[in-house]
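Input record (Table S2, row 358):
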Amino acid sequence: MTLFDSPAFEGHEGVHSFFDEKTGLKTIIAVHSTARGPAAGGCRMWPYANAAAALDDALRLSRAMSYKNAMADLELGGGKAVIIGDSRSMKTPALFEAFGRAVDALGGRYWTAEDVGVSPADLASARKATRYVAGLEGHPAASGDPSPVTAEGVFRGVRLAVRRALKRDLDGVTVAIQGVGHVGAYLAEKLHAAGARLILTDVNEEALAEVAARTKAQTVAPGAIFDVEADVFAPCALGGAINETTLPRLRAKVVAGGANNQLADPAIGRALFEQGVLYAPDYVINGGGIINVAGEIRALERGEAFDPTWVDAKLVRLTQTLEEVFDRAVTEGRPSHEVANDMAKARIAQAAAEKLAA
Ligand code: NAD
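Output record (nicotinamide-adenine-dinucleotide complex):
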């Protein structure tokens, strides 16, 4: 299969591969769209089995960033970089500086940031060769850890979904959270403060016990979280939480959490809808993190300090967008993830048309 026939290609503006002989860097930077602004999305370092697997991941993730950035109402397009290699053994400052040169070669069409396998220290090395890097530490424009902002957006989204699906507030509602890492732990604290009853799980037993003690939560084994009696299921671990095996076990009337790629495939989203479950599309409800990063890009572009009030205004807008998704899903009688995809595509198409007309 050639690049242009790949199902994940879907109208990418550009796909760029770079090799640096001295450091062994092999990177693919996929730019899905710059219609709304420069493409922005993190850099993932992963030991892909081959270049085709790396390309597929880059394409899939960069298109997802276009949709996420559009739904977060950011003046950013979507892109993603992948570095082929094991982040535990192959990382060097020189490799990330070479990656910075690759980013710089795109002349500002792509802004990079952290993703799996890449740390702020790696980004500092990349920054030596390009200014198109967000997620740095120790400067006035720095946005810091995005997780609390992601969790705040998810919290507001859960509250909205509960009001709509259950016609009540969070006080006394039972929420099952899968994964109490960065996002899940902050979310648990916010829900506990709002009076929700929590059932938590995590494969990390130490972290689980610690968060449960702080939030007076019940805990269950990882495999049991799908069977608990809960009003809301909040996936905050890895992707694919809702799949053919777990869906029949879910008792919740709302699925709303921070994890990316919660639906194993789009058909599962339709099955959720047909089962009468209100699903908050993952890339809409978890947009707080990219909003935070966008705040840093904005500050860097303007030569200003990071402005948390701008971030909060975008978070307010994000919840309004989620409400619009829910409204349209009702009036059109369609699953929320299909509505969100169409809205994202329309926002990108409109920006592209305006750009052409200008
Ligand atoms: P994290 O690694 O800090 O937390 C994930 C937690 O899930 C860990 O505690 C891990 O032990 C647990 N876990 C893994 N597999 C599990 C399983 N099978 N059952 C139960 N627990 C399991 O990551 P994070 O930053 O909190 O991100 C969580 C999710 O949210 C990811 O899908 C991430 O892509 C997404 N996300 C995060 C942000 C952010 O700002 N951090 C933004 C947007 C989306």
